[in-house]
Amino acid sequence: MELFETMETRSSRRAFLSRPVERDVLERLIAAANRSPSYQNTQPWEVFVATGEKKDAVAARMHDNVVKGTPMEPHIPFARVLPKAHETRALSHRNRRFQALGIDPEKDQERITESYMRNFMFFGAPCVIFVGMDKTLSPWSIFDLGAFVHAFLLAAHAAGLGAVPQAMPTGYPAIVREELGISEDIAIILALSAGYPDLDAPVNGYRSLRRETVEFVRWIGF
Question: What CATH number belongs to 3-79+120-207?
Answer without folding.
Answer: 3.40.109.10
